Amino acid sequence: MSRFWNNKVKELVPYTPGEQPKDKKYIKLNTNEFPYSPSPMVEDIIKNYDFEDLRLYPDPDVSELKNEIASFYNLDTENIFIGNGSDEILAFAFMTYFNSGDKIYYPNITYSFYPVYSDLFNLNPETIPLNESFEIETDDYENLNGGIILANPNAPTSIALVKGDIEKIIAANKDNVVIIDEAYIDFGGESVLDLINKYDNLLVVQTFSKSRALAGMRLGFAAGNKELINGLDKVKFSFNSYTINRLSIKAGAAAVRDREYFKKTVETLVKTREKTKVVLKEYGFFVPDSKANFLFVSHNRISGEELYLRLKDEGILVRYFKKPKIDNFIRITIGTEKEMEIFTEKIKEILK
Questions:
Q1: Fewer CB atoms inside 10 Å of the end CB: C or N, the chain?
Q2: What's residue 242's pLDDT?
């Protein structure tokens, strides 16, 4: 610990990303990356990019990408904010909408960056337990006295709330900002993007790291009431005016523009997920009804930790969380059809 760190940094317990080992080649089913390449339109942008342009600052308003997102989702550009991945946007949102000491509510099992940001920005987190089926009980989120953040579908459980239930939570907390983190929404959930003009307390956050296959490009966007977006802009322009680089803007716009490729690859992944779900259930696994690009599973004959280690020995990485209530589970990112066939075959051998 450095003697030059401030007191907050000394106390921080940072987010732990999924392992990225370099000792050998693995089938990576541990970090929820998309298994298919980005759109050919993105490839074309990168291969033909004017290298000379990199000497210039990027557009601080990210207009080209905003215009594509607005067209795709039928939104107004004034309701859109662009960031370096959804994690950066969430950090800006925590800075923008909450004061030090404010309460913020989220499930006791959810995306592990929420408690990190709560600590970093001196908030008072209140975790609400999931039910025994790992589901969010909407009644638990009525008339709360603080901000709310929900991942939908939830991570790492993979379970999604229907749109009507999300709307009940938003409507029951009109004096509090409700952030809906839709990182995995394209794999079967119901988005609430079209509710941003109905509720001025709703911020919806999405990422390009999953269904758009651009985890390495670091892009995300938020949509909300104009005043919510203006607040994010105010923080951004007080922190870093040029958050999105010129190449990322063009690549992101191309990814949104290629609607056919987006639809085809997402449908392929969902088909593979459903096939894998059936096989794992046949092998005796407990498998919640995933609406994400991953499965969250447990087996009564082998612990989650042992399964994670045995698979790693076989050259397959999955995610294991050594945390209360979920320490017997592993999270499996859906890979290609071939990768998932190898995975299920290895599982079959381990269970013999």
A1: C
A2: 85
Please say whether the beta carbons of 344 and 56 come within 8 A: no
Distance CA 187, CA 20 (A): 24
Among 199, 211, 183, CA closest to 110: 183
Q: What Rg value do the Cα atoms of the chain yield, rounded? A: 20
**48: Cβ contacts below 8 Å, ≥ 6 apart:** none
**222 vs 73: CA distance, rounded Å:** 12
C-alpha separations of 297 from 237, 307, 321, 334, 337 in Å? 43, 11, 12, 13, 19
Euclidean distance between CA atoms 171 and 166, whole angstroms: 9
Confidence of residue 13 (pLDDT cuts 50, 70, 90): confident
> What's the Cα-to-Cα distance from 4 to each of 9, 13, 18, 45, 213, rounded to whole Å?
10, 17, 29, 44, 39
Cβ(44)–Cβ(37) below 8 Å: no
CA–CA dist 320, 318 (Å, integer): 7
For residue 240, name the pLDDT band (cuts at 50, 70, 90).
confident
Q: Residues 287, 281: contact at Cβ < 8 Å?
A: yes
CA dihedral 59→65→66→71, nearest 10 degrees, is 150
Report which DSSP code applies to 58. P
Residue 134, pLDDT > 70, answer yes
pLDDT at site 23: 65
198 contacts 171 by C-beta, under 8 angstroms: no
Q: Is there a contact between 311 and 323 (Cβ–Cβ < 8 Å)?
A: no
In the predicted model, is pLDDT for residue 9 greater than 90?
no
Instruction: Quickly state the pLDDT bin for 1 (edges 50, 70, 90).
Output: low
- Beta bridge partners of residue 179, listed in sequence order: 149, 203
Which residues share a beta bridge with 104?
Answer: 125, 147
